[in-house]
Amino acid sequence: MSDNEWRDVNPATADLPNKGRIIIALIVGGIVLGVLTFVGMRIRPVGLAAGVSIFGAGIGMLLRSVKQKVNTNIKTAVIVTASGFLMLLANPRFGIVAGFAAYFLIVGAIGLVVLGLSKAIKLAWDLGKRA
């Protein structure tokens, strides 16, 4: 079968799979960030391991974005790097800084879920108007 047979004939819904992926990534990312923050604050080695791995992944994403000169992924890379850094700071041995770091991580996690849900509602509203 050729690609023309699978092409979406409605141009208004041509980018629907990409919008769906973004919505799912926002919601799941917020849930995972919240769970990792709660677990990381309670179990110190898990928090440190999660912080190091998230921070390392963010640095790797930044280096790839700069090397490939792609500006679309830099925002995501900065968010991932900051989340990893805050996860490291949320370790209870850092005192009052841990409270602020955990607060920002929880607010960020809730923000991601709310943003994902609002995008899903907007997408459903737009699709309902077109139908």
What does this structure look like?
This protein has five helices and no strands. It is mainly alpha-helical. It is flat and about 55 Å long.
Helix content: over 70%
Describe the oligomeric state of these chains in a short phrase: single chain
Helix run count: 5
Beta-strand content estimate: under 5%
Structural class: mainly alpha
Kindly state the mean pLDDT as a whole number? 82
How does the overall form come out from the CA principal axes?
A: flat
Can you count the beta strands?
A: 0
Q: How is the biggest beta sheet arranged?
A: none
Between the first and last Cα atoms, what is the distance in angstroms? Answer: 29 Å
Order of helices and strands: HHHHH
Rg: 18 Å
Instruction: Report low-confidence residues grouped into runs of 5 or more.
Output: none
